[in-house]
């Protein structure tokens, strides 16, 4: 087995394989190719007339996926691009309609430990958070340039942290004396802001929601997802599938509303009335799967 697959286990892979049955000449779009785990699973059943088109904003993921998928019998095309541009990129590659579009919105395991990306509050890294290095604004830029109200609103909106005002106040107070340029600094400030004597300890790290909010803002994640969802109906063949794996309620809510509206408009048939979640056994073997929710719809 390829080493990349061991490092990054594709979430809900067996469940997806049980729901989606591609023909040998099928065309699959993996909108977040990552290390290629999901595509490898489906690509093994595609023939020489089948194709996989994979997108990712992370160049290192593209390189790893190329190795992972090298021996597949089907055509494989990998594109360094954001799935928000999926319509234009598919047109450039010569594909008008496809059978299956998959987007796993989770982070790759390697990205969380990559010092150059700067996403982890478990280790001290530069406060960057750009998955796509072509982006200009880093998390450190947002922290240093934004006023207290903007920071509080951002942490509340994208992190859903009810203590957002207190966190923002601590950040602004701290940066007066020292620039906040590492993940360790920011995590420590958030922990201090949320420290309360006698307060019951949360299951998640105190900085989780603040880091999520900054990552979403830096990478324009919700805007990009909205563009993907808007593009999909025109790209799917009749009876083609759209499957999206999300990891927090903001993403899942967008997907749920989009799928339901398209079902109401007789564009989609809902394959999953409720999201599919990992089994206890899958979570035990892959902890990053614990918050995953899979929704599938089919083009009418």
Description:
- The protein has 300 residues and is an alpha/beta fold.
- The protein has two domains: 3-110 and 221-299, Vaccinia Virus protein VP39 (Rossmann fold), CATH 3.40.50; 136-219, DNA polymerase, domain 1 (Orthogonal Bundle), CATH 1.10.150.
- The chain has helices at residues 3-7, 13-19, 37-43, 59-68, 86-92, 109-113, 139-145, 148-159, 164-175, 183-194, 208-219, 221-235, 249-264, 280-285, and strands spanning 27-30, 51-56, 75-80, 98-104, 236-246, 268-270, 293-299.
- The chain has a seven-stranded mixed beta sheet with strand order 3-2-1-4-5-7-6, sandwiched between helices.
- Helix 8 crosses helix 11 and helix 9 crosses helix 10.
- The longest helix has 16 residues, at 249-264.
- The two termini are 37 Å apart.
End-to-end separation? 37 Å
Helix content: 40-55%
Structural class: alpha/beta
| CATH architecture annotation name of the largest domain | 3-Layer(aba) Sandwich
Strand order of the largest sheet: 3-2-1-4-5-7-6
Net shape? elongated
The low-pLDDT segments are 1-6
Domain count: the total is 2
Q: What average pLDDT do the residues reach?
A: 92
Q: Write down the secondary-structure element order.
A: HHEHEHEHEHHHHHHHEHEHE
């Amino acid at each position: 087995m390829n080493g990349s697959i061991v490092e990054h286990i594709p979430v809900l892979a067996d469940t997806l394989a049980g729901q989606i049955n591609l023909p040998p000449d099928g065309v699959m779009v993996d909108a977040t190719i990552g290390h290629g785990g999901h595509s490898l699973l489906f690509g093994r059943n595609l023939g020489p007339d089948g194709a996989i088109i994979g997108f990712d904003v992370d160049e290192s993921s593209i390189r790893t996926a190329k190795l992972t998928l090298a021996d597949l019998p089907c055509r494989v095309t990998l594109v360094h691009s954001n799935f928000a541009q999926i319509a234009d990129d598919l047109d450039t590659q010569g594909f008008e309609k496809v059978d299956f579009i998959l987007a796993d919105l989770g982070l790759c395991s390697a990205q969380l430990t990559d010092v150059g990306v700067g996403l982890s509050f478990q280790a001290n890294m530069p406060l960057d958070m750009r998955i796509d290095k072509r982006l200009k604004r880093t998390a450190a830029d947002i922290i240093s340039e934004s006023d207290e109200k903007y920071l509080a609103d951002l942490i509340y909106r994208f992190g859903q942290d009810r203590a957002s005002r207190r966190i923002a106040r601590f950040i602004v107070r701290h940066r007066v004396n020292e620039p906040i340029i590492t993940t360790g600094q920011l995590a420590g400030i958030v922990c201090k802001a949320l420290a309360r004597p006698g307060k019951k300890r949360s299951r998640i790290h105190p900085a989780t929601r603040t880091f999520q909010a900054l990552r979403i803002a830096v990478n324009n994640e919700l805007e990009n997802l909205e563009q993907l969802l808007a593009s999909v109906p025109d790209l799917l063949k009749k009876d083609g599938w759209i499957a999206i794996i999300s990891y927090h309620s903001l993403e899942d809510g967008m997907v749920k509303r989009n799928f339901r509206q398209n079902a109401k408009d007789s564009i989609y048939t809902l394959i999953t009335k409720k999201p599919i979640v990992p089994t206890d056994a899958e979570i035990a073997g892959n902890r990053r799967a614990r918050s995953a929710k899979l929704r599938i719809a089919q083009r009418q």
